[in-house]
């Protein structure tokens, strides 16, 4: 994935990551879990799961 954001942006959604899951939709087993493993040492970003679409939503929060 590739995304660009103005360095002055704050609390801005910058990327959505789609997920395909074979579990029954909208069950605990089908909920995607996202984690930033590297590159966020200064906590400039957060990633959450959209409860409706199950996409990962990457947001700049610096």
Automatic annotation (TrEMBL):
Localization per Swiss-Prot or TrEMBL: Cell membrane
UniProt keyword annotations, A-Z: Calcium, Cell adhesion, Cell membrane, Glycoprotein, Membrane, Repeat
Top-level taxon in the UniProt lineage: Eukaryota
Gene Ontology biological process: cell adhesion
Major subcellular location class: membrane
GO cellular component, one term: plasma membrane
Protein name according to UniProt: Cadherin-like protein 26
Organism of origin: Clarias magur (Asian catfish)
């Amino acid at each position: 994935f590739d995304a660009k954001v103005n360095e002055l942006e704050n609390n801005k959604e910058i990327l959505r990551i789609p997920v395909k899951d074979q579990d029954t939709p909208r069950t605990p087993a089908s909920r995607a879990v996202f984690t930033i493993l590297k590159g966020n040492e200064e906590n400039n970003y957060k990633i959450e799961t959209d409860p409706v679409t199950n996409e990962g939503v990457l947001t700049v929060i610096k």
